[in-house]
Design a protein that fits this description.
The structure holds two protein chains of two kinds.
Chain A lengths: L2 E5 L2 E3 L5 E8 L7 E7 L5 E7 L5 E3 L7 E6 L4 E6 L8 E11 L2 E3 L8 E5 L1
Parallel strand pairs in A: 2-11
Antiparallel strand pairs in A: 1-3, 3-8, 4-5, 4-9, 5-6, 7-8, 9-10, 9-11
Chain B lengths: L3 E4 L2 E4 L5 E7 L7 E6 L6 E5 L3 E2 L7 E6 L2 E6 L9 E6 L6 E2 L3 E5 L1
Parallel strand pairs in B: 2-11
Antiparallel strand pairs in B: 1-3, 3-8, 4-5, 4-9, 5-6, 7-8, 9-10, 9-11
Classes of the chains: A mainly beta, B mainly beta.
């Protein structure tokens, strides 16, 4: 079964750090871009970060300079290291894949169940 | 950043109704536009990508159309399983952005 599973969420103090992880199975992340999307309670979805197959990384302005995304193709995992956490980072963090195809990308076709980060 | 605006924010409809949700982008997207369905407590589900391509396994009552800056998601005959929130998302330019969502409620 093709799936991703997030882990590592929890309670953290403002200014603290936390790393959330995404473990993929049923496919190789070396073939796909991987992203993190978050959703604060009652709010819209917010794209957070992406790491492409060529290891180039991209960040939302709200997390740039504080979060670091990385991939380990050998372990089939993607991590999001979150530093200098703020109250407004409180959200469910979802891992999702983006499949690059010749006719264009297929965005976010596989999502995990999410992991909850609470900054309090 | 590209701003995505959906309308309406809430929609009340009955089973069997034809439902249309609109998404407007602040600049042209070259059709790199996706639609997602999200039910309470669940992760979003991809419905449509590249503005009008139906994701594998999604019922054919869902369709997407539009180009440039204006796009629509249409549900041809609303089913009980379709009551949910729907989001558009542009993946033309980083940072990728989502609309604020449209909640489809039972009338």
């Amino acid at each position: 079964e093709v799936q991703v599973v997030e882990s590592g969420g929890g309670l953290v103090r403002p200014g603290g750090s936390l790393t959330v992880s995404c473990a993929a199975s049923g496919f190789s992340i070396s073939d796909t871009h991987m992203t993190w999307v978050r959703q604060a309670p009652g709010k819209r979805l917010e794209w957070v970060s992406a790491v492409h197959t060529d290891t180039n990384t991209y960040y939302a302005d709200s997390v740039k300079g504080r979060f670091i995304i990385s991939r380990d193709n050998s372990k089939n995992t993607v991590d999001l290291q979150m530093n200098s956490l703020r109250h407004e980072d409180t959200a469910i963090y979802y891992c999702a894949r983006v499949v690059p195809k010749s006719a264009g990308w297929v965005p976010f076709d596989i999502w995990g169940h999410g992991t909850t980060v609470t900054v309090t | 950043d590209i701003q995505m605006t959906q309308s309406p924010s809430t929609l009340s409809a009955s089973v069997g109704d034809r439902v249309t949700i609109t998404c407007r982008a602040s600049q042209s997207l070259n059709n790199w536009l996706a639609w997602y369905q999200q039910k309470p407590g669940k992760a979003p589900k991809l419905l449509i990508y590249k503005a009008s391509t139906l994701e594998y396994g999604v019922p054919s009552r869902f369709s997407g159309s539009g180009s440039g800056t204006e796009f629509t998601l249409t549900i041809s005959s609303l089913q009980p399983d379709d009551f949910a929130a729907y989001y558009c998302q542009q993946y033309d330019t980083y940072p990728w952005t989502f609309g604020q969502g449209t909640k489809v409620e039972i009338k």
